[in-house]
Amino acid sequence: VQEAYHGPGHIRLDKRGVIIMLNGGNLLLLLLLVAGASCGAPRTFSVDYQKDCFRKDGEPFRFISGSIHYTRIPRVYWKDRLLKMYMAGLNAIQTYIPWNYHEESRGQYSFSGERDLLHFLQLAQDVGLLVILRPGPYICAEWEMGGLPAWLLNKKNIVLRSSDKDYLSAVDEWMGKLLPMIKPFLYENGGPIITVQVENEYGSYFTCDYNYMRHLTQLFRSHLGEQVVLFTTDGGSVGFLKCGSIQGLYATVDFGPGSNVTAAFEAQRHAEPHGPLVNSEFYTGWLDHWGSRHSVVNTNAVIKCLNEMLLKGANVNMYMFIGGTNFGYWNGANEPYSPQPTSYDYDAPLTEAGDLTDKYFAIQNVIKMFRKIPEGPIPPTTPKFSYGTVTLQKLETVSEALEKLSYSGPVKSIYPLTFTDLNQALGYVLYRTILPFNCSTPTPLSSPLNGVHDRAYVSVDGVAAGILERFKSITMNVTGKAGSQVDVLVENMGRINYGRGINDYKGLVSNMTLGAKVLTDWTMYSLSIDQAVSQGLLGKSMSSNPPQPPKLSLPTFYGGSFVIPDGIPDLPQDSYIKLTKWTKGQIWINGFNLGRYWPARGPQLTLFVPSSILSTAVPNNITVLELEAAPCSDGPCTVEFTRTPIINATLPHSLKPTSRLFSKEDLL
Question: Does the reported pTM lie above 0.85?
Answer without folding.
Answer: yes
